[in-house]
Amino acid sequence: MRRLSLVALLLAAALPAADVPPALKAALDKADAITLYSLQPLEGKDKEKPKEAFHGIAVLGKAEIKGDAGKTLAAALVKAIEDKSARGARCFIPRHGVAVKSGDKAIGLVICFECNWVDVYVEGKRARQTIGGDDGLLTKLLADAKVPLPKGKGE
Predict the structure, then answer these.
(1) What percent of the chain shows pLDDT beyond 70?
(2) Which of 30, 39, 75, 104 has most Cβ atoms within 10 angstroms of its Cβ?
(3) Is residue 138 part of a domain?
(4) Is residue 111 within 8 Å of 131, Cβ to Cβ?
(5) What one-character-per-residue DSSP string does 7-76 give?
(6) Does 8 have pLDDT greater than 80?
């Protein structure tokens, strides 16, 4: 069993990061609205239905990101998803979410920078892919908007 896990881990590490899905890139390039979420994953016995959830993860707060900050966020997300050096871990502890509306398209991102994974929701379908970078910009935008921040790594 341990050998199988090691083989799976090595295969996953060898896979390149996926390109940004065309629908996501188009939505980010011409976003009408971007909402940034502070998420708190609940684990184990503490897991109970949250009052508000974003794709099943408890919401601590959210902020509308507009103007230049929205353009900066959109560009940073595209760059992070295109990061070919990103390698996903075996966990998924998302602390950030992004909802993008562009015309009649609604796209959701549930992001775990700790594990280097992002779940991309397009037209009700979920696709998981790697994401590079870190949560610095997203955390700063949330803090500037006075949104409660998620507990970080090791807390």
Answers:
(1) 79
(2) 39
(3) yes
(4) yes
(5) HHHHHHHHSPPPPPPHHHHHHHHT-SEEEEEEEE---GGG----SSEETTEEEEEEEEE-HHHHHHHHHH
(6) no
pLDDT at 108 over 70: yes
In a domain, 119, yes or no: yes
Helix or strand (DSSP H, E) at 79 = helix 67-82
Strands 53-54 and 57-65 come out as: antiparallel
Q: Give the range of the structural domain holding residue 95, as residue numbers without chain letter.
A: 16-144
> What single letter denotes the amino acid at residue 53?
A
**Separation of alpha carbons 77 and 98, rounded Å:** 10
pLDDT tens digits, 113-127: 988 999 999 888 999
Query: Is residue 22 one of the residues assigned to a domain?
Result: yes
Q: What is the CATH number of the domain that holds 127?
A: 3.30.1490
Residue 1, domain member (yes or no): no
Q: For 111, phi and psi rounded to 5 degrees?
A: -115, 135
- Do residues 72 and 141 touch, judged by C-beta distance below 8 A? no
Give the residue from 20, 33, 25 showing the smallest Cα distance to 102.
33
Tally of domains in the chain: 1
Running DSSP on this structure, what letter comes out for residue 99? Answer: E
Task: Give the tokens for residue 136.
Answer: 């610095």
